[in-house]
C-alpha cells in the first residue's frame, strides 16, 4: 500500500495570499477604528466645552458677573479668562497656587522651588508662579478640560530649543485647545458701519481694556442661545508667526519683587499673540485677532507648525478645529457643531452678543 504523504508547511504562494488577505482586512478595518476613535474624541471635546460654558454660569451665580478676558477678578490680580474659570472646573487647588515668585531670590536650578514664593496678599498668576504639588511652573500645569484629544498641536507649542531642554522652559503641558470670544468677555464698541472697534492696551487702561464687565443675560441682547462664548483653537498655530500658539496662563504680568503694581514691567498683559482669544481684540504687542467677516474659523489647517512662507496654513488670529466641523459653546450653556460651509457673515453674527443680526439659515 502507498503511504500517504504528510504535508509539512505552507508554500510561499499560500503565505503571500494569506498576508495579502490580512492586509486587505486591516485596510478595511482601520478607517472604521479611526472613525470610532474620532467620534469618541469629539464627544470628549464637546464635553470640555460644555463644562467651560457651565463654569461661566457658575461664575455668574457666585460672583454676580462673568469673568473678564483678562483682568483683576474674584480675588486674583491681573489674570486671564481660563485662569479665572479654574475654581468652577474643580481646579480650585490649582487656582489657589498662583502666588508671587520672588524672581530676585536664587532658585539654584531650572526647576522652581516653593520656598522662593512670597505672600503679597493676593493671588497673582505670573510667568514664574509655582505649582507646589508638582514643583513645576504653574503655566506648565495640564488642565484636561482645556485640551481636546484630537488637537494634533497639543504639546508642540514650544520651540525646538525649549522642548530639547529637559526642564521645558515654556508652557509645555499648559497649552489649550479652546479660546474665549473677545466680543463677549472683552471690551469693544461699534463704528458707524456696525464693525467692532477695539481699544489699544496701555498702562492706564489695563484694568478695563480686556474686561467688559459682562453679565448674563444683559450682555446678550441677541440671545444667549445665539451667541458663541468658546470655540476650538489649536494650541500651536505658527502660520502667521513662528512663535504663535496659546496656553491657559497667557495674558498676565510677570511683575517685580514686592507688592503688585500696574507700572511694573510685564511680558504679556493684557494678552499677546499667545493668548486664548478669537473674534477680535488687540494685544499689548500690537497683535490683532481677526474680527468681522474675516474671522471665520479654520478646519484642519495643514502644516500648523510651519510659517506661511513654508506652506503653513494655520492662522493664530482665527479659531481652528481638528474635527470635520467646529465645536462651539453657546452662552446658554449648550454645545453645537458648526458646519465649515457656514458663511463668514453668519459666523460673525453668532460671535456678536449685541449686533442685532438674525442668524441665517446656514446656522441650522
Structure description:
It is a single chain. By secondary structure, the chain is an alpha+beta fold. The protein has one domain (46-363). It is built from 7 helices and 15 strands. It has helices at 12-63, 81-84, 92-96, 160-164, 182-185, 206-209, 344-351; strands spanning 70-73, 76-80, 100-101, 117-118, 130-131, 136-137, 178-181, 189-190, 196-197, 228-232, 277-278, 298-299, 320-321, 326-330, 335-338. The strands form 6 sheets. The protein has a 5-stranded mixed β-sheet. A two-stranded antiparallel ribbon has the order 1-2. A hairpin with a 4-residue loop joins strand 14 and strand 15 (335-338). The longest helix has 52 residues, at 12-63. The termini are far apart.
Shape: globular
Order of strands in the sheet with the most strands?
11-7-10-14-15
State the share of residues found in helices, binned by percent: 10-25%
How many discrete structural domains? 1
Radius of gyration, in angstroms, nearest whole number: 24 Å
Helix/sheet category: alpha+beta
Task: Summarize the entry for a quick read.
The chain is 23% helix and 12% strand. The protein has 364 residues and is α+β, with helices and mostly antiparallel strands.
Features:
single chain; 364 residues; alpha+beta; five-stranded mixed β-sheet; two-stranded antiparallel sheet; 15 strands; 23% helix; globular
Amino acid at each position: 500500500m502507498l503511504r500517504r504523504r504528510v504535508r509539512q508547511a505552507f508554500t510561499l504562494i499560500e503565505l503571500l495570499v494569506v498576508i495579502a488577505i490580512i492586509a486587505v482586512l486591516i485596510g478595511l478595518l482601520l478607517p472604521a477604528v479611526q472613525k470610532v476613535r474620532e467620534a469618541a474624541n469629539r464627544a470628549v471635546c464637546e464635553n470640555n466645552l460644555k463644562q467651560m460654558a457651565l463654569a461661566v454660569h457658575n461664575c455668574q451665580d457666585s460672583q454676580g458677573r462673568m469673568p473678564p478676558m483678562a483682568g483683576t477678578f474674584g480675588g486674583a490680580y491681573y489674570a486671564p479668562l481660563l485662569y479665572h474659570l479654574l475654581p468652577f472646573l474643580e481646579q480650585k487647588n490649582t487656582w489657589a497656587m498662583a502666588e508671587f515668585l520672588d524672581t530676585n531670590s536664587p532658585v539654584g536650578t531650572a526647576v522652581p522651588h516653593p520656598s522662593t514664593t512670597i505672600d503679597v496678599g493676593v493671588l497673582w498668576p505670573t510667568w514664574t508662579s509655582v505649582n507646589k504639588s508638582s514643583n513645576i511652573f504653574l503655566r506648565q500645569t495640564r488642565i484636561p478640560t482645556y485640551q481636546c484629544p484630537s488637537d494634533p498641536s497639543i504639546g508642540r507649542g514650544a520651540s525646538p530649543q525649549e522642548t530639547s531642554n529637559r526642564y521645558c522652559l515654556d508652557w509645555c503641558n499648559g497649552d489649550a485647545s479652546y479660546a474665549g470670544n473677545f466680543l463677549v468677555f472683552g471690551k469693544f464698541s461699534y463704528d458707524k458701519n456696525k464693525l467692532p472697534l477695539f481699544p489699544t492696551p496701555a498702562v492706564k487702561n489695563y484694568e478695563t481694556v480686556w474686561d467688559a464687565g459682562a453679565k448674563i443675560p444683559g450682555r446678550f441682547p441677541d440671545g444667549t442661545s445665539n451667541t458663541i462664548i468658546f470655540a476650538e483653537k489649536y494650541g500651536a498655530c505658527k502660520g502667521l508667526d513662528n512663535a504663535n500658539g496659546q496656553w491657559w496662563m497667557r495674558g498676565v504680568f510677570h511683575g517685580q519683587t514686592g507688592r503688585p503694581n500696574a507700572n511694573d514691567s510685564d511680558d504679556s498683559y493684557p494678552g499677546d499673540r499667545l493668548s486664548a482669544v478669537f473674534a477680535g481684540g488687540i494685544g499689548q504687542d500690537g497683535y490683532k485677532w481677526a474680527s468681522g467677516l474675516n474671522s471665520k474659523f479654520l478646519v484642519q489647517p495643514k502644516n500648523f507648525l510651519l510659517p506661511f512662507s513654508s506652506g503653513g496654513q494655520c492662522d493664530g488670529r482665527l479659531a481652528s478645529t481638528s474635527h470635520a466641523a467646529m465645536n462651539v459653546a453657546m452662552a446658554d450653556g449648550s454645545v453645537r457643531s458648526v458646519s465649515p460651509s457656514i458663511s463668514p457673515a453668519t459666523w460673525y453674527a453668532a460671535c456678536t452678543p449685541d449686533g442685532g443680526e438674525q442668524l441665517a439659515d446656514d446656522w441650522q
